[in-house]
Give the backbone structure.
Amino acid sequence: MLIQATAGEARAIIGAMASIAATHGEERLTAADRASLVAAHHYLLRQSKRLDLAALPRLAPRQLAAALPDRALATEAAHMLTIMAFVDGSLDEAKIERVLDYAVALGVDEPYIQEITEAAHGHVQAALADMTRRNLESITGKPWLQDDAMGWFLPYRGDHADPVLAARYRALGSLPAGTLGHAYWEQYRRNGYAFPGEATALNEAFATPHDCTHVLSGYDTTPRGELLVSTFTAAMHPSRPMEGHILPVIFSWHLGIKINDVAGSAVGALDPREFWHAWARGAAVSEDLFAPRWDFWGCVGESVAALRERYSIPPLAE
């Protein structure tokens, strides 16, 4: 859902984000911090006027809460403030504590708040375990009560391979170039991925909507692209967006903290401008590829261009 904010509300939110970035002093604001503030103001808060960073209001937590009477906007503001604590690529306890102060004032107590609290207090593994659980809840649409997450992500191992399913996916290569099916097949061939059904493949229930989101959004499969496609997904599929999608990839691909063998890890992959653009693009999409109703096999013969238009996916370049 696209965020609705007045010019004054937008400046208040961006000012609070700047306060978090400047926790250790205004001189410590980085180029990435500044680029992130400008991009969030333009893309996610949809403000067209030039942002004057020097003139931003620096509202205390209670003042920000008073400036944001709309509950939905306050919730989105808490999301944005949380991201700002990690733009510099560090797990900074002082910045997270400031985020928590704002969250309390805004009345926001979602699961991701507990995750960042745990991480700030040195309980990173507990935070990562919860992120994995929330991610699976978002994907499966039901509470995740099992311990073996990897068993779900890699269901075809050993004698559980499904050669019929794998053959169906490999056959997508025979579809015309430009179709969703051919683009999906080409992405797998180019990256050397195992098709669903093959012994080392990821679960079809995750891999297919995830990799179709890569195709339709235009984001590649580099660490930067993985972070962007998960951000796009969080806005497109608003089920556990922060705790199940955005924070896990920030920890994995930006902070270099490995969640599991499937996710991998890297350092510094958050693009401070395109991150907010990806969030806004995902929010504008009219079709959720992770929703049970979306039919991959019913779309494989359609062109990528036609699907992008039908699903109202904004262009990658702006």
In short: Residues 124-140 form the longest helix (17 residues).
